[in-house]
Every structure is written in C-alpha cells, then in structure tokens.
Amino acid sequence: MKPLLFLSALLAAASAIAQTRPAADDATLPPPPETKASIATPAINPSLPTLFIAGDSTAAQGAPGAIGWGRMLPAFFDAEKINVVNRARGGRSSRTFITEGLWQEILNQTKPGDIILIQFGHNDAGNINDDSRARGSIKGLGDETELIDNQVTKKFEVVRSYGWYLRKMIADARAHGATPILLSLTVRNEWPGGKPERQNGRWSEWAAETARVQKTAFIDLTGIIAARYEKLGREKVAAFFPKDHTHTNEAGAGLNAECVIHGLNRLPQNPLASCYSAKGKAVK
C-alpha cells in the first residue's frame, strides 16, 4: 500500500474508534451542580401529619459552620407521630422561594392537618434585580409592584412586597388545609450597645404584623433567641458562629431549634404539643 493511502486508512480507523469512545472516564469528571432534582427528598409517612419548614440558610440543613435550626428540629419530635421535613434552602428570600418553585414543592405534598413553619427576611434585603442573585423583595407590606427583566433568569417578572409573599404563603397553606406559622428572624452575632441584636431591619416587625392581620400564629424567634444570647454572654455566643455573623454551627443551630420549640409552647394553641419526643417535652 502506498504511504499516502496507508496514512488515510489509519486516520479513518482512528476517527471511527474516537466516535465510539466516551469523551472521558465518568470518574474523572467533576460532579454535576446541585439542582432541585438532585436533592434528596425525605420520605414522608402518608398516615402521619407533616411539619414542613420553609426558610433560608438559617433554617436549612446546611454544612459545617453553616447549619440551620431546621436540621436539628426533628430530634424534638416523635417520628412515630409526625413527619418533620426541612425544605428550607440557603440563599432564598420569600420571593425567590416562590419564584423558583420551592414553595410549590411543599404545597404538592401538603395535606389537611399539616403544619408549615415559614421564616424569611435575611435575604429579602438584597437587590431586586442584578446579575448575581436578584432576590430582594419590595420592603414593607403593601401591594405595590416593580416590573423587571430579571438579569439572572432572563425572564420578565413582577416583583412584589415582602408582605405580599408572606400573605400568599399563608393563603396557599390554608387552601391545602394546613396550618401556617410565621417566625421572625434568627439573631446574628451582632451586639449593638453591648446587647444582642434584636432588629435586623424591619423584617421581623413586618412578619409579626402580617401574622396579626392574617390571624396567623406567630413565633417571636428573634426575641427568644436574643434573650438566650444575653444570658449566655457574648463570648459563649461567639462560639456558635465560626463562619460569619449569621450562620451557626451545630451547637448554635441546636439552641435555635430549642428556641423554636419554646416559641411553639408560648402559642395559645400549640398544634404540635402532642407530637413531641422526650427532648421536646423537656423544653419549658
């Protein structure tokens, strides 16, 4: 065979082999980015009521150094009496929790008799529209709107107020026969005037006012946690925040979860009182 013909045949064979060979060994490829579909969905016993948690990173499962109270909450409940499903997601505001479909995912599994703890505000102060997160909501409780071409989603969007998004969640929960409970924000490791921070913007105030107007149960988690922090002192509280002034470690998340139970116990009618584990019953 002439050299030129031999070279042509060799190149053709190599091309055929390349077309049947994978581009790279799957083991050497980086893992795919986390998507809603790739996040494990907790098993729900359909014969039991379910306690859902809707919130941001301060309630989410999280990671070392940034664990939310929702990760620690199941220990306070009897798994034979109630499901505890934490659907809180880091980085979300009341607005993006709805627009990304995370709220609908909860509604899809909600049945009469379920309870939904709702806590947002830390991220609602962000920019309404930018090319990074575009997650802010309009401050306040009104019905005003802002029309945007969302730089992140590349879609047109009608942005509403913080109060509007909370009211929607309350109405949706009730439409599914569930009981919504609003919570004010967790407390950051900030000590203005030597006292634990009790006001991170007006989000907790607006959540309380929404609960009052909508006749919805409300837990002043901000006040309960701040009181605990004040008793513990600044040095001990600092140990709960290894990463930044907002996110807690496991110990801090455990204390915040206990404060949630304390807040439930303060309600005139606590719908979860009969579902506590021994740990939950021990919280006074």
Short description:
Helix content is 35%, strand content 11%. The protein has helices spanning 3-20, 69-72, 94-99, 102-109, 162-175, 203-214, 221-232, 234-238, 250-266, 278-281, and strands at residues 50-55, 83-86, 115-119, 146-149, 156-159, 179-183, 217-219. α5 runs parallel beside α6 (203-214).
Under CATH, the topology of the domain at 51-125 and 162-281 is which? Answer: Rossmann fold
Strand order of the largest sheet: 2-1-3-6-7
Average predicted local confidence, pLDDT:
88
Task: Tell me the overall shape.
Answer: globular
| CATH architecture identity of the domain at 51-125 and 162-281 | 3-Layer(aba) Sandwich
The description of the largest β-sheet is: 5 strands, parallel
Could you say which structural class the secondary elements and strand pairing correspond to?
Answer: alpha/beta
What percentage of residues falls in helices of 4 or more residues?
25-40%
Estimate what percentage of residues fall within beta strands. Answer: 5-15%
Low-confidence stretches: 1-40
Number of helices: 10
Tally of strands: 7
CATH superfamily of the domain at 51-125 and 162-281: SGNH hydrolase
